[in-house]
Amino acid sequence: MTVTGNRILDPVIFIILLIMSVILHEVSHGLVARRLGDGTAAAAGRLTLNPIPHIDPFGSVLLPAMLALSGAPVFGWARPVPVNPRAFSRPTEGMALTALAGPVSNLALALIAGRVILPATSGIVADLVWAFGIINVVLAVFNLLPIPPLDGSRMVPLLLGDRGRAAYAKVEPYGFLILFALLFIIPGATRWLSVPISTVSDWMGLR
To answer: Is 4 contained in some domain?
Structure first.
């Protein structure tokens, strides 16, 4: 995925677009959590579009730069907003809805980019809008994977009983190791994601 074709400039552009996207992703988590009764993110000053409180040096900058330079789909993450599930009247459902808000916000941004803004632009602006939309599709699809700490993992407990939830919780400490293996150790482990990414991108008008 390229915008200018420049191996130095493109990663910078992708990181800027990614940071914009992950900030809105995290703020969406916090807004839904507050709506459901948890004001932890608001009290921590995380319901802001100021990038400083949200940036994770590895997930927001280093990893996306590595992916962009390697020609792989660009994604990453911001610092997770703090959430206290005990503040929800129904913690499992509250965590699932809070988690779902992130990918939904990315899909909404992709839809606006592809169906509203892209048809009205051209040239480099259109390329930037397209890249922004694709990055948000990648973020949404990837975050819906049921691997801790991704958002999809917060929805799995809805399908499990108490024993299943306890067993699944034991996987959480190893989530980052699993993700690292899928991304960098096992060849082609995430290649299948190109199918849902392409399908959703087409739906969003990001051809």
So the answer is: no
Q: 107, 134, 109, 105: which is closest to 3 by C-alpha?
A: 134
Tell me the whole-structure pTM to 2 decimals.
0.89
**Residue 93 appears among annotated catalytic residues:** no
Query: What's the number of domains the chain is made of?
Result: 1
Q: Say if 2 falls within a structural domain.
A: no
Is the pLDDT assigned to residue 67 strictly greater than 80?
Answer: no
Which of the residues 21, 22, 26, 132 is marked catalytic?
Answer: 26
pLDDT digits over 118-144, tens only? 999 999 999 999 999 999 999 999 999
Rounded to whole angstroms, what are the CA distances from 76 to 3, 25, 122, 169? 18, 11, 27, 23
Both structure tokens of 167:
């067993």
CA separation for the pair 201, 75 (Å, rounded): 15
Residue 83 lies in a domain: yes
